[in-house]
Amino acid sequence: MGRRGTGWLVGVIVLLGLLWVGYWYAAHYAAETAIARAGARGIACGSVDLSGFPLQLDLRCDKATYAGANSAATGAIAGFTAHAPLYQPGQINAKLEAPLTLNVPGRNLAVTANWTAGSATGGAGFSGLNAASAAFTTLKVESSGGLPIASATADSASGAISPADGSSYNLASSIRHLLVTPTDAAAYPQLDLDLAATAHNVGALGVDPQRAIVAWLRGTPELDISSLRLAAQDAVIAASGTLSLSKDGLLNGSILLRYNNIDALANLVETLHPGAKEKYAVAFQGIAGMSKKVDTTDGPMLQTALTFTDGLIWLTVIPLPVTPIPPIRF
């Protein structure tokens, strides 16, 4: 390569370096602007540090707080550290520091969450957020009012939302050794829970995903359940199917229900709702009589179909003698 070729190469390298430096400072400025906008919405940090030059943008926030209009709701988290690699635009990884507190005085709601390790990820495009996930180890949530639950603990808990076809989103969640203690009763049985589903017609999450999700829930939401598995006591329960809510909040749809033993299923329902085993004895007998054996990854199970029509529950074409599901409001 001659001197001219070497000069061109050096020039291109210098130009690319200058462009990258400009790119980093542009991202730095965008982050500062976003922080200022968050402050205008009641979200603030006790102290903020932006760094990471030259390959990524790092944000350190100590004592992040939120104050809604007229202090209708307040919240705080001990802090978080977020990393956004500039070579992967739109990707954010964060470590979350306990505790997290939430207070809604108007509803007498006060919640505190602690964990030993917490992380979150986010994906964003030009229209705003389009994917997110969070995972916690040794999670403990306590409520001092406003909820029927006094506390909930789990060895691990995770959840994720990611784009599906059109305006739909895939949902995934996994909880291990969840123990829920109601405010007025003994603790429920410890359980494991796994869910994979698709929420249809959610629309863009945008820059205010909470508003988008609430609007979806308050409309006529439809959920396609690929797999739902719950294991507690001696019962193993699984389900798949499609459920939706009418404009009046009434449940519609159908699912394939799988369970390992009708007595274990009835005993679990009895534990959650004392008196239900005797009250709905005929319903449990009907479910058992209309079930068939199937092989699953959990071993041999019993399977039947349940249909929901405006809150009424049907076993194939036979209505179950149970109280209709009341309207579900958000």
Task: Describe this protein with a few key phrases.
alpha+beta, elongated, single chain, 330 residues
Main β-sheet description? 17 strands, antiparallel
How many runs of DSSP E, i.e. beta strands?
17
Task: Report the sheet-strand fraction.
Answer: over 45%
| Class derived from helix and strand content | alpha+beta
- What is the overall shape? elongated
Gap between N and C termini: 69 Å
* Element-by-element helix/strand order: HEEEEEEEEEEHEEEHHHEEEE
**Unreliable segments of 5+ consecutive residues:** none
Q: What is the number of helices?
A: 5
Provide the residue-averaged pLDDT.
Answer: 90
Radius of gyration of CA atoms, rounded to a whole number: 25 Å
Task: State the helical fraction.
Answer: 10-25%
Give a description of the structure.
By secondary structure, this protein is an alpha+beta fold. It has helices at 3-40, 209-217, 262-272, 276-279, 281-289; strands at residues 43-51, 56-67, 74-85, 91-104, 109-114, 117-125, 128-143, 149-163, 169-182, 191-200, 222-232, 235-245, 251-259, 292-296, 299-309, 312-315, 318-319. The protein is built from five helices and 17 strands. It has a 17-stranded antiparallel beta sheet that branches. The longest helix is centred in the N-terminal third of the chain and has 38 residues, at 3-40.
